[in-house]
Structure formats: structure tokens, C-alpha cells
Amino acid sequence: METVYAICVGVLTTGGVYLVMRSHTFSVVLGLTLLSYAVNLFLFASGRLVVNQPAILGQSANPADPLPQALVLTAIVIGFAMTAFALILALRARSDLGNDQVDGRVRDDVLNKRKKSQGE
Amino acid sequence: MNLLWIPLLPLLGTLVPLLTTRWERSQSAALTAVAPAISLVLVLLCIPDVFNQQTLQVSYPWVPQLGLNLSFHLDGLGLLFSLLILGIGLLVILYARYYLSEKDHMGRFYAYLILFMTAMLGIVLSNNLIQLWFFWELTSISSFLLISFWSDKTEARKGARMALTITGAGGLALLAGLILLGEVAGSYNLSEVLQRGDLIRASDAYPAIMVLVLIGAFTKSAQFPFHFWLPHAMAAPTPVSAYLHSATMVKAGVFLMARFYPVLAQSDLWFITVSLVGLSTLLVGAYTALFKHDLKGLLAYSTISHLGLITLLFGLNTQLAAIAAVFHIINHAVFKASLFMAAGIIDHESGSRDMRQLNGLWKYMPYTATLAMVAAASMAGVPLLNGFLSKEMLFAETLHQSTFGSLSWVIPIMATIGGALAVAYSLRFIHDVFFNGEPINLPKTPHEPPRYMRVPVEVLVVLCLLVGIVPEWSVGELLRAAAGAVLGQTLPAFSLSIWHGFNLPLLMSALAVLGGGWLYYNRGHLFAFQDQFVEWDAKLEFERNIQRITTAAARFTEWFDNGSLQRYAFALVVMALVFAGSPMLELEVALGSRPEQPLNWAVIAAAAMLIIGTITTVVFSHRRLLALVLISIVGLIVSITFAYFSAPDLALTQLSVEVVTIILFLLALFFLPQHASLRDSPPQRIVRDLTIASLVGAVVGTLCYAIITRPFESISSFFIANSKTGGGGTNVVNVILVDFRGYDTLGEIAVLGIAALGIFKLLAGMRLFVPASDYRGRPWSEDKHPIMLKKVSQALLPLALLISAYIFLRGHNLPGGGFIAGLVTAIALIQQYIAHGVDWVKERGVSGYHGIIAVGLLIAVLTGMGSWLFERPFMTTWFEYFKWPVVGKFELASAMLFDLGVYLTVIGATLLILANLGKLTTSERPKAGVSD
């Protein structure tokens, strides 16, 4: 089970990092979301994987580690605030700069191509 | 008497000229002189003690842990320099009063000058290495201000910049040297360091210390090859040159050599380096001085040459040489200051400094000419003047030393040549300016200066004569005290007298005078010879190099910091990969000793969905609505994962956050192109990014695997043990959040509130393009608020609120709590927004989310502070069980109040974000049919 879990975290990280490096703001925000899933799962797993033993007194003989859970719980909420902020920032950038590119300007290679096709 | 006053008074005195700047000029100058004059008196009062071999000290702890104390001491060397600094300083103040014109800001000038004086005093009196360096840098800065005093002149600005760059760079080398020295000696206290010469010379760091300290000294004292800044500093007003470039600033370098002589000298490395540098400076300076047409240029190069002479003396391996060096420090300061002042008078009263124009001034200013000629004769080393005595001593010591082994005989010859050159340029100074025909095209008719402008020159020239004729009586004891501090032991016997009989040094002097005369007589040939060479312009070269450096820096910045966030993200990821990945290479096996838990089909299915969801999100990220559907699958699986692995609180939080996030994405998508407008990246970049991302994923996955397969010790047993007894709850996660780590939670809800407010500000005044139709050209539905949705959501609202209250109340003991309850309430309210529109909700009095955030935070903080009332630390929980009617036994805890704060903040923040963004869609939306 641990192997599968680690693979999932790896895949989420890969997807998140790849999207974070994209040039459209929307992709970057999607990437941030995936990345925060990965980070939360990673941090959560530092308490090791325990099945069916929630950290509630009197219900489990050998409760799961509550500390990473508490940390991740606030991380989820903060992660939401961050995603929201990034998303609104993307909107604001589109409103002020007129495009949805991360760099705030259309890439040179695209512009060149456009010019070329116009020339033809 | 407290030594601290000696540097402190001038420091306070910097204010005097600034405050009296509107006064009559003479009054202002006189008041300016008060503070240095008192300091001078204080120094004079110390003379008896210092002559009795005492070292006066005062010390105040500053940062003693770093070996940094504010401490001053006064020994013979410090006394000599303090007298020069304050004495000549006072003369310069008087001189500058007449030199500066009405246009010049005299107050500013004096303030800089006194600041510089303070800095110099700080150097010579410091008893702490770092403090010494501090004052050293202060001289660089204040001299920069003085040289650039006429800042409207390019020359002045460039000269000042060059001086600052060279001496500042030398200062950095000195700092490194002093820190090394302090570390090796085990103390930053100068008196202690000076006792530990053997220890320092034996250490491996000795060559480095010596070279670094010498670089500091050589740059400051304009030693070859760092000498080129000094002539360009002549753009300063002449009083500055008279002060800085004769008696003080450039003497700081030789002071440093004298100060550290007991520690750093006594090794071949020192003697060879210092004597070679000194000798080359002596010759280069003296030779170049001969060809300068500018009066101050000649004096500048002659200063370089005399500084070289002093350095050479410190580099000769005899004790008498060091004494001669100290002696020449005095003599050079006296005659050079007077010469600079005389040059200033000539410039001031004739309007030119060019010796090709200045001729025959004897007729116009005989008195000044006499003074200048005496001083110049002293510079040439004519008997009965002070310059003669120290030059004699130099010649004698060049004969006694054995610095270069069998080649040591070269030094006396070179010294004689240097002497001859000095005679030649001094002759030129006298003959070319005061005789040699008539003045040519002078802007003014030369005349004698104001009476008091001559006084400083007179005083100095009298000193030249006094020291030259009765040396033992005038400076004998001072010299002994200073030289004693340099050599740090009993002095060898020496006699200061004019006549030592017919001996070899006298012959060398005679040869120098004759040779100098011959050189000057044949100057025509010499000038013609020199004219063949292109003059190397240090300023041009320097400016060009500065230009080159700034251009290179600009180019680098342009390349490195090109404003592309995409590129920064890439760089960040690569750095993270390098730093996280490289330690992983050292981990030999990823698998730890914890047994792997068995898989089941449910887990495999969930993992497959998560992986497929992730990959498809990436693949379809350009089809944005689809990508949102796919990523919400991933989020759902993540919350199921939490639930499966014993984290019900996390699962609930993730689930509700997921709902809010997706709503937010959908709202935002309304304003963004629903299809990526451009192809994202060229294929090679996609391959590159995929590679990097896969590597990062591999590293993170492996790290995760390595962690979760290893057994561990956690601090959580404490929380589990104390949750019920200390926090009054059985849901340990919630008790950690609101009690054990309540302070963290407080910080996090504060961040949440701040983020919401930031978003609110970002939304304000945002003007977005609102599409009238979706990307396929279908217009939006006109039925904005379908009746079914209205009715259902209205019916759901009380239920949802009830559930959130339930989740909130049970949170302390069972999964739930403020975060989750807050999100559930927020979702229930958002649903009303979706179903009925912003206005409908607003009409019902649900608004003012800023206030809700504030109230929530306030409740949380006040709850925490409440424990102060019971004299407990911030956020100590109180709880009690009560028997309630109907409900039965129920617990009340102060932590619940804190959780209420969390609850309200979460609601406020979430709704502030969503409702405001949603409002944008409503208010900006064009009326149906009107658009297109």
C-alpha cells in the first residue's frame, strides 16, 4: 500500500510541477492545486499510513498520529486561500494586461509566428 | 581627563559650522575652530604622561561578545599624529576662511573637514581593530565629500569617485586583514594584539594578514601601483589637498605600517615587499613630478614620492630606519602642507596653476615667494631645514641595511637618484614659478594674499626652520616617544643634529643636489625625451573600466532577470530539484523496515482514478471546463484517501474546500478564455519541462516512500495523553488545533483573513471582458435563477445550517470543528447566491463579510487573552461539564469560543472572496440581447 501511495504522491507532484511551469495563468493555478494536494498528502503521510484508527480517544486502541493531521487541516484551508489569491491575481492580470499569459505578454516565438503568417 | 573627548569634541564640532553658516564668515570660522582647539589643548595636556612612557587608555563595552569595545588609547605615535591632525587642521581652517570664495558653502566645507578630522583622530587613537577600521572607512567617505566639494566640476566628481573606489577597496582588504589578525591574536584589542607579534608571525595566516593590511596601507598612502588616484584628487579645493594629501589622509597608510610595525614587520617578506614598493613609489613619483606643468600636480607626485620614501624606510631592516620614517612623517607633513598652501595662494591670487604661464612671480609676491622657497628647499633636502635631516637619515640607513642581501647596495644608489629628482622638481617649483621671465597670459595680476591667509604658511615654515636648526630641542622627545611606540622596545641611540661630520650620507646629499641641479639645467632634453611617450591617463582608463563593469552588470541583469515568471518558476523548480535530489543520492535504500500493508481493490481503484485524473488534467488543461471536472475527481479521491487513512477531520475539510474551490474556479473561468488561446509551448520546452517535472515527482515520491516505510517516534503521544485531561476533548486533532497549537491556528486564520482582504482589493475596480456567449457561440441562458434551484436551495439552507452547527458543536470530541463547520455554512450561503443572485441575498441582510472576519479574529484573540484574567498563560483552556435540560450532560470549554472565532473567520473569508467575485459577474454581465 505504501508503494501505491508514494506513486500517487509522485504523480501528483509531476503533474503539479509541470503545470506550474506553463505559460497560461489558468494552467498554473491548476498546477498549484495539484501541487497542494501532493504536499498535503506528503505531509499527512509523515504520520505513517494507519487504517481505521482515527485519533479520537476511546475509539481506537492505537490511534493515528494526530499532529500531521492538525497541520494538514490548516494547510488545506490556507491552500484554498492561496489558490483563490492566485486565481484572482490571474483575473486581475488579464484585466490589466489584456492577456492570460504568466509573463503578462505574449511570448516572442508566438508573436514571430503570427507576424510571419500575416506576412504570408 | 577623559581621552574620549579628543575625538568626540570635533565630532560635535561638525555641527558648529552648519549652525553658524549664516553668520559672518570670520565668526563662523572662528567658532568652528573652537572644538578642535580644545581637543588640541587636551592632547597637549597629555604630553607629560606620554613622554613618561605611559599609555593613556579608556574603554567602554559595546558588543563585548564580538570583541567590540569603544576604546581609545594615546601613546607616542598617537600623540604625534594627533598633534599633526589637530595642529595642521587648525591652520587649514584659518587658511580655508580666506581661500573659499563667497559662492562656496563654507559651512558645508568646514563640516566635512571637521568630520574628516574626527575620523583621522579615530584612526590614530583607536585601541580596537574593528573600531580602527570603522574610522578608516570614515576617512574614505569624508575625503570623498571633500574632494567632490566643487561637485559641479566633472574633474572633482570623477577624482572623488576614483579616490573612494581605490581607498574603499583597500579598506575592504584591510578589514579582512584585521579580522584575520584579531582571530589569530585571539583579541581585537590593539594593545593586546601588539604584544603578540611572535604568535602572529608564527601563524600560517601571517602572509595573508600582512598582504591584506599592506594593501589597505598602500592604497591609502598612494603607493605604486595604486598611486594614480592621488593626482586626480587634486581637483579638491587646495585647503583639502594641504590637509588630506600632505599631513593626514595619505599619512593614514604609513600610520598603519607604523602601528603594526611591531607585529607585522621583522620578517623578510615584510622588508622585501615594503622596501620594493616604497622604492618604486619614490622613483616613479619623483620622476613624474618633474614633468607636471600643474603646480598641484607637481606637489601631488612629490607627495607620492615622499610617501614612497617613508614606506621605503619602514621596509629597511634597521631600527634607525623606522625612527627616520617617523621623523620624515613629521617633516613631510610640515613642509608639504605649507607648499600646498603656497600653491593655493598663487592659484588664488594669479588665477592659474600652470607653470607654463606662471613665471617671475617674485616681483609680485616676494613675501609668499620667500616662504614657498624655504618650504621647497626643505622638500629638496637643503641643510638647515627639516627635510634635510630626515633625508640624511634615509641615506645613512640605506647604507646600513641588508634587506636585499648581496644586492642591498642598489638601494643607496636608487635613493640618491630619488634625492636628485627631488632637488630637480623643487628647483623647478622655485625657478619656474618665481623667476624665469615674466608671467604669460595670467587671468589676474598677481599680488600678495590677505594677511591672515599667509599666517598658516608662516607658522609651518617657521617649524621647518626650527626643526631644521634645533632638531633635538624642538622634536627630539616627541620623536623618541613616537618611535618608541613603533619599535615597542628601548630605542637605539641616535642623535638629531645637523652636523655629523664628513661622511658618506653627506656625500650622497651633495651628489643629489648637484645631480638635481644638472637634471634641471638639462630639463629641455629631458622634456623632449619624455614627450615621445603617450601620457597614460588614469582617469580615462578608470572610467572606461567602471563603464565596462556597469555594462557587464546591466547585461547580466537583463539576461538573468528578464521579467519572465515562467522562467523564474523553471529556475526555482530546478534549484529545488538540485537541493532535494542530491541528498537522495546518498540514501542507499528507499525501503525502510516497516512492513508494507496489504493492498486491496478499493485502494488500487482509487489510486488508478487519482493517477488517471491527474494525467488527464494535465493533458486537457487547455480545455478548461473539462480540466476542472477532472481535477475535482482528483480532489475527491484525496479526501477519500484522508478518510481511509484515519483522518476524518481532514476528509471533511478537503471535501468542503473542494466544493468552494471548484465554485471559485467556475466563477473565474467565466472571465478567462475557456480554451487556451495559444499553443502553450514549443515542443522542446514541453519535453524539457516534462523531464524536470518527472524528476521532481520521482524525488518526492521516493522521499515519501522512504519516510512512510520507516518506523518513527512522534511527539504526539503527549497530545494523545493530555487531550482529554488538559484540553477537555477527545478529538485530538481538534484539541491540537484549538488548544495545544492554538497559537498557530490563530496565525493561520489571520493569514486567511488577510488573503481574503487582499483578494477583495484585487477585485476592486477590476474591469474584465465579459463574453456574451460561451466559446462555441452559444449565448448564456436567460433563466438566471431557475425556480427548481431556488426552491431546493432555500429548503436546504436550514438543514445545512443545522448540520454545520452540529459539526461545530461536536468538533471537540468527534470529527468536526470550526474549520469544517465554517466551510459548510459558507457553502450553504453560496448556494443561495447561486440560486437567487447577489441582490436577493443582500436584501436579506447577509453581507459585511469584512466585519465577520474581524469579529472572528477578535473572538479568537480575546478568548486567548481571557486566560490572563485567571493569571494563566495566553490561550490556556478552561472547560467544565454542565447538566443541561433536554440535552443532558454537555461540556462547555473556552476552546469552543476560540473555535467560534475560527468558524466566523472561515465564513467571512470564504464569502468575501466568492461573493465579491460573483458580484462581478452579475453587475458586469450585459443585458441579454443587448450584447454582441
- Give the distance, in angstroms, between the N- and C-terminal Cα atoms of chain A: 58 Å
Give the strand tally of chain A: 0
**CATH architecture descriptor name of chain A:** Orthogonal Bundle
The helix/strand series of chain A, from N terminus to C terminus, equals HHHH
Query: Helical element count of chain A?
Result: 4
Q: Structural class of chain B, please?
A: mainly alpha
Shape of chain A: elongated
Which two chains share the most extensive interface?
A-B, 90 and 114 residues
| Biggest pleated sheet of chain A | none
User: How many domain regions of chain A?
Assistant: 1
Strand content of chain B: under 5%
Looking at how many chains there are and whether they match, the oligomeric state comes to heterodimer
Features:
heterodimer, A: 120 residues, mainly alpha, Helix Hairpins, elongated, B: mainly alpha, two-stranded antiparallel ribbon, 39 helices, disordered C terminus
What does this molecule look like?
The complex is a heterodimer of chains A (120) and B (932). Chain A is mainly alpha-helical and 120 residues long. Chain A has one domain: Helix Hairpins, CATH 1.10.287. Chain A is 70% helix and 0% strand. Chain A has helices at residues 2-20, 25-45, 66-97, 108-119. Chain A is elongated. The model of chain A has no long low-confidence stretch (mean pLDDT 88). By secondary structure, chain B is mainly α. In chain B, 71% of the residues lie in helices and 3% in strands. In chain B, the strands form 2 sheets. A two-stranded antiparallel sheet of chain B has the order 1-2. In chain B, strands 3-4 form a two-stranded antiparallel sheet. In chain B, helix 8 runs antiparallel to helix 11. The radius of gyration of chain B is 42 Å and the shape is elongated. At the A-B interface, helix 1, helix 2 and helix 3 of A face helix 27, helix 28, helix 29, helix 30 and helix 31 of B.
